[in-house]
Design brief:
- The protein has six helices and seven strands.
- By secondary structure, it is of the alpha+beta class.
Length: 206
């Protein structure tokens, strides 16, 4: 297992970050949905601590972007919580929760603990800032196989109990995150039927 280093990204890392996105989301994925230079600049300017990249031997192999919100339990979409990917209008410096809007890992480097390292860095940030929790809207890409016979809520319960396995949600649960609620029309996602699950990791120091 190679040593994964997680550090803050800057605008100078844009080409490396874009290379990760291009490899993870190749055409026909719409290019306009990759992070733009303007969005990366906004992340770094608005909340630099939440702008993280992972590298192995100097190669950028993954990234994760977060902001701070005041958690109120209300349904929301990715577009709303992420300010369309810019975070400027949705970041609440005095909030109580770190919210992850993005994790991306190069497919050629998967299985090397990169996503896990990024989630551990986020947990460390929650502790360092004295926040209450980490939150994220989690895809449920295997749900479309079962949508004809169960609701998204029942599917999430089954995955949480270990009765079913979901490519993303099962991984999140293994990272110590707990499903809180199903979010409808969270993002355009055919596999998840546009659903996401809000997952939470509570700061054990609070």
């Amino acid at each position: 297992m190679k040593n994964v280093i997680v550090r803050p990204y800057t605008l100078d890392d844009f080409e490396g970050l874009l290379a990760v996105q291009k490899e993870a989301f190749p055409p026909p994925f719409p290019e306009e949905l990759w992070w733009s230079r303007e969005q990366i600049a906004a992340h770094v300017e608005t909340f630099p601590e939440g702008a993280m990249l992972a590298e192995i031997d100097g190669v950028v192999v993954g990234s994760a972007t977060s902001l701070i919100i005041q958690y109120d339990g209300k349904p929301h979409t990715w577009e709303e919580i992420a300010d369309g990917g810019y975070i400027k209008k949705s970041h609440q410096p005095d909030g109580d929760s770190l919210y992850g809007i993005d994790v991306c890992v190069r497919p050629s480097y998967r299985g090397q603990g990169i996503a896990r390292a990024l989630y551990e860095a986020r947990k460390d940030l929650v502790k360092r800032l004295g926040l209450t929790r980490f939150l994220a809207g989690c895809r449920i890409p295997d749900y479309h196989h079962f949508a004809h016979k169960m609701t998204a809520e029942d599917y999430v319960k089954a995955v949480n109990k270990g009765e079913k396995t979901d490519l993303v949600l099962t991984f999140m649960i293994k990272q110590g995150l707990t499903p809180l609620q199903v979010l409808e029309n969270y993002v355009d996602d055919d596999e998840s039927l546009n659903h996401a699950v809000l997952v939470e990791w509570k700061n054990p120091d609070r």
